[in-house]
Amino acid sequence: MTKAERQEYLKNRLQEMSVYEQELRTKGFQYIAGVDEVGRGPLAGPVVAAAVVLPADFDVLGVDDSKKLTEKRREALYDVILEKALCWGIGRRDNFVIDEVNILQATKLAMAEAIENAGRMLFDRTGGQIDFVLFDAMEIDAVKKPQMSLIKGDSKSVSIAAASIVAKVTRDREMVQLDSVYPGYSFASNKGYGTRAHYEGLRKNGITSVHRRSFLKNFDVR
User: Fold this and answer.
1) How does DSSP assign 69-128, residue by residue?
2) CB neighbours of 69 closer than 8 A, spacing ≥ 6?
3) pLDDT per residue over 25-72, tens digit each?
4) Which ranges in the chain belong to alpha helices (H)?
5) 137-176 tens-digit pLDDT
6) Burial letters for 72-111: b for 16+ Cβ neighbours within 10 Å, e otherwise?
7) What is the gyration radius of the CA atoms in the chain, in angstroms?
8) Is 134 helix (H, G, I), strand (E, B) or coil?
């Protein structure tokens, strides 16, 4: 694929991923938040959610499901998304909350917090309020706003994709910091997921205060 062909592909991809937002705007919704999370599967660390409201003329190429992007590309897009977004917010729930209420409920709490924080920023900047929420395969009754759940939404909605990037970069940076606090588990590389190096660290060093004990019930720490 030539450079020109690549640019054309990315333009078409952005147009394709903006369909849901465009349709909602034709129905009168102005501030549409895309929401996604990262960190439901790891053995350690928090679950982190992000909510992002993009302007109607958002034209940044390459925004897609964070899992499809390299770390370098995610980092670059993270800065541009935060610069261009009308507002954004982060929500997180640590391993203690995950152990207490389960990962699904902790994820919903993190998402609700992200929407609340994004809404606060939006009001401060514009005086407006988020009037529609696009979720990636999730519905949250506690969020009293019109909403839509999209299966694989981070590959279908530019707003959700932007949120997936913001959440991923935010959590990855936190796990890198935790690696220096809890050496021996390779958090900087595995981000808390159950890799061989992580399990070896658990066998050698035991469970830390950032591990999800509910995820390690059957793990022998001898």
Assistant:
1) S-HHHHHHHHHHHHHH-SEEEEEEE-HHHHHHH-HHHHHHHHHHHHHHHHHHHHHHHHS-
2) 62, 77, 165
3) 999 999 999 999 999 999 999 999 999 999 999 999 999 999 999 999
4) 3-17, 19-26, 71-84, 95-101, 103-126, 158-181, 187-190, 196-205
5) 998 998 999 999 999 999 999 999 999 999 999 999 999 9
6) eebeebbebbeebbbbbbbbbbebebbbeeebeebbbbbb
7) 18
8) strand
Neighbours of 193 (CB within 10 A): 16
Q: Is 31 within 8 Å of 53 (Cβ atoms)?
A: yes
The C-alpha atoms of residue 13 and residue 18 are separated, in whole angstroms, by 9
Q: Could you give all domains of the chain from N- to C-terminal order, each with its CATH number?
A: 3-173 (3.30.420.10)
Residues in the chain: 222
